[in-house]
Design brief:
BirA Bifunctional Protein, domain 2, two-stranded antiparallel ribbon, elongated, binds phenylalanine
Amino acid sequence: MDVKDLNKRIKTLEEQLIQALEEVESQHDLQQVKSRYLGKKAEISQLMRHMKDIPDDDKPAFGKAVNEGKQRFTELIEAKREEIRKAEVERKLRAERIDLTLDAPDFTPGSVHILNQIVEEIEDLFIGMGYRVKEGPEIETDEYNFEKLNIPKDHPARDMQDTLYIDDEHLLRTHTSPVQVRTMLEYGGEKPVKIICPGKVYRRDDDDATHSHQFYQIEGLVVDETTTMSDLKGTLLKVARAMFGEDREIRLRPSYFPFTEPSVEVDVTCANCDGAGCSVCKHSGYIEILGAGMVNNAVLKSSGYDPKRYQGFAFGLGIERIAMLRYGIEDIRHFYVNDLRFNRQFR
Ligand code: PHE
């Protein structure tokens, strides 16, 4: 083979390449053509082997012809690559074209559920007073839900909270009070505690207008060396006023909870009649809103706090009850069925 034959051969290969490129439709096809015409085994790459048979004088021209051929092949292939890329962009743009003249679908943004709104409102109030928000598991142990809260197994106080048991030791928590226990144990009996615990709780109740097998509570707990019952009362007054209006008053009635001593039931003056008596407050002027008390020494002890040094208060309130009183909602089931006509009223 001499230089003339070589040029002819390269010309032929180039024509074949041009033809092959016409068939190419994708980057994948292109890659195959490229390896066929420019790869290690491609004819043009093999041509260099003939160098040894070429007279010395012709060698530079021979090498130049092969390299220039390769250069042209590469340019042809790269030009095709660019062409395919552009065609792909073009195709994508066409496929994703937006028709601005079409009607928009009927789109209404959602909103935070009323129960979560109230939880957030109460959290804000307490965070503002230096409390921390703590959460805990909804599947609890008997120990944290009852025993450490001064409710031993088989104690009649268990009747106060109808319980959904999973097995002998596990249950769906009946209140958020086990989070108190968990936090006190976590703090190791040394640090003051100032927390609220929001969350879902469960009772073995048949659902009706005022009962639900699942509802929301927020529990509050303060433990330190100087906390007194008047701190509790001041705090509860603040909650009552934040929830029901700045003119509200509260009263405490003696009650019983195993985990607090003394225990109280807390009433707020009826916002509907301002305490004068009406059908909402059953003509008493007051509405019961929560339970509270001074943390029982037995609970401090079982949670690792020395009752000789520490004392504290706790309270627990039901979120649904607050929402029902505030908005005159008569059936607790409205909160859970996700009827948008109901939910939208609280946007
Ligand atoms: N854990 C009580 C309940 O669910 C509420 C409560 C909490 C009462 C804290 C007193 C103190 O019934």
